[in-house]
């Protein structure tokens, strides 16, 4: 009786069924020529690792975090306004996991400053907070002057989710943007200022895939806000300070400009359609109150 044996399939087909980087590892097994084996091993393993890193660093197209990231506007660093004579020693900055909302404020200071003197105005605000109030740093993450120049405020990095001290009960996962001046009812709000606030909001919220025209769920960390500690509030992603705390900030005039700021920020993120309800995000458990005493005996702020 004659037995017919089927010839083995092509090597390429068999290798295709092997998982992951196993075909590469086989190139490192004994039996290959001494010169060929190290080359196959090094080249194959490097290619496998490179592909994995590339896939991890560049998510698939269409994901919100990639699709709606806005360019970072020019931001003047702290070193431009904080001199050695004014600077105080402070502990390292604190961070959250991401920024999901921004709070525009006004500084309730005079409007008649020359834009070239904005660093001096910010320095004065910093000295007041860290002096008489004994805060560790200025509370706002950013400040914007009437010419549209954006300044880095609180230390920690302009693209990092730095925990601020600007909104009682809602400092975690929010960025505070302060407009230099007082913008009560009837006071003109410079277009350059609102455009800069929109650009900054687009950038910060885009890093977390948040639509500036939408709403987000927030947990109050302090009962001195409009909500008791631990309560969940649904607020605009770009919310006036008065939404979370009993205050007139950012002033009636700037508050009236918030819808336009939201729309401008959305356009800068590449969003052209009307805002749609965003999927509900589970808020983090109430974080510890931002007001507190550090080992040095100073306060972080509200």
Explained architecture:
The chain is an alpha/beta fold and 302 residues long. It has eight helices and seven strands; from the N terminus they run ααααββαβββαββαα. The strands form two sheets. It has a five-stranded mixed sheet with strand order 1-4-3-5-2, covered by helices on one side. A hairpin with a 5-residue loop joins strand 3 and strand 4 (150-152). Helix 6 packs across helix 8. Mean pLDDT is 75; it is low at 11-64 and 276-302.
Give a brief outline of the structure:
The chain is built from eight helices and seven strands. It is of the alpha/beta class and 302 residues long.
Q: Which key features would you list for this structure?
A:
five-stranded mixed β-sheet; alpha/beta; two-stranded antiparallel sheet; 7 strands; 8 helices; 302 residues; 10% strand
SSE order and pairing:
Layout: H1 11-16, H2 22-26, H3 36-57, H4 64-67, E1 75-76, E2 101-106, H5 118-130, E3 142-144, E4 150-152, E5 174-179, H6 191-206, E6 215-219, E7 232-236, H7 252-256, H8 258-268
Parallel strand pairs: 1-4, 2-5, 3-5
Antiparallel strand pairs: 3-4, 6-7
Helix pairs in contact: 6-8
User: Cα-atom Rg, whole angstroms?
Assistant: 27 Å
Order of helices and strands: HHHHEEHEEEHEEHH
Determine the number of helices (DSSP H or I, runs of at least 4 residues).
8
Q: Give the overall pLDDT as a whole number.
A: 75
Got a strand count? Answer: 7
Percentage beta strand: 5-15%
Percent of residues in helices comes to 25-40%
Main β-sheet description? 5 strands, mixed
